[in-house]
Amino acid sequence: MADQPTPLMPHATASWLIDNTALGFEQIAEFCGLHILEVQAMADDLASSKYTGRDPVHSGELTHEEIEKGQADPNYSLQMQKAPVDVSRTKGPRYTPVSKRQDKPDGIAWLLRNHPEISDAQIGRLIGTTRNTINAIRDRSHWNIQNIQPKDPVTLGLCSQRELDAAVAKAAKRAGTDKEAEVEENVAAALDPRDDREKLIEELRQEREDAVKAAARAAQEAEAEAWLEAKRAAEESGETEQEDGPPPAA
Q: What mean pLDDT do residues 102-109 have?
């Protein structure tokens, strides 16, 4: 099925379809953009949040004929009849109904524990919160930290499964790109010919210094040897003059 928009209120729509139709869980999940396990939990009253059903026929997103097609054929994919109007916000955090705002810390804690690769900015967009709140929960300085229990934000109705999956995929791609860049940098450094050239220059410099030191040492030794030879020659010359000179006076 080609990609199509999801209902304006997917969880509420799914709740209505569960209660008022004989559609399969997979059909409802596909139409609402939810995970089939979410739909199953809602049907079994196991979901942590209760949703007031929203009639997609009344909103024009579905027709009775479309629902009947789905009920007659379990493999039929429901077609959106009228896409919901997108309501975009250019500034400020994501809007969250008052009834769900107390669930935000639980959703943030769940993301920090299960998806540490997601950035604070992404969490802010998913949950509709601020960096200060995220940091307070991360370092456990939040005023209500003792009562915060990590819970899936999708189940809480704070974001959709598609939005969460997209954020996780984006974070994973960013982490992979950073890792690849680090590996490439390390490989480039290992293969950089400048390293070998610098090593060769250092070896030549050391050899030159050793040669200069050896030459200086050899010159000192030669000078010392010449001085000893001159001293011996002078001593021998003095002894000879004393032996051949006139006899001492009487």
A: 90
The band of 2, judged by pLDDT with boundaries at 50, 70 and 90, is very low
Q: Does the residue 92 lie in any domain?
A: no
Question: What pLDDT does residue 139 have?
Answer: 93
Report residue 234's pLDDT band, with 50, 70 and 90 as the boundaries. Answer: confident
CA–CA distance, 14 with 36 (Å, rounded to integer): 11
Amino acid at position 25, single letter? F
Taking residue 96's Cβ as centre, other Cβ atoms within 10 Å add up to 19
120 within a domain of the structure (yes/no)? yes
Report how far Cα 84 is from the mean position of its chain's Cα atoms.
34
Same-domain check for residues 124 and 200: no
| Structural domain span for residue 168 | 98-189
Amino acid (one-letter) located at 37: L
Q: Rounded mean pLDDT of 51-71?
A: 89
CA 157 → CA 19, 67, 102, distances in Å?
A: 19, 24, 12
In the chain the first and final C-alpha atoms are separated, in Å, by: 143
Q: What is the mean pLDDT of residues 106-127?
A: 91
Q: CA torsion sign, 29 to 52 to 155 to 5?
A: positive
Following CA atoms 13, 14, 19, 22 in sequence, which dihedral angle do they give, to the nearest 10 degrees? 120
Specify the residue for token string 């209500």: 144
Q: Is 48 in contact with 54 (CB distance < 8 Å)?
A: no
- Total domain count, the chain: 3
DSSP-assigned letter for residue 142: -
Q: Are residues 104 and 179 in the same domain?
A: yes
pLDDT surpassing 70 at residue 238: no
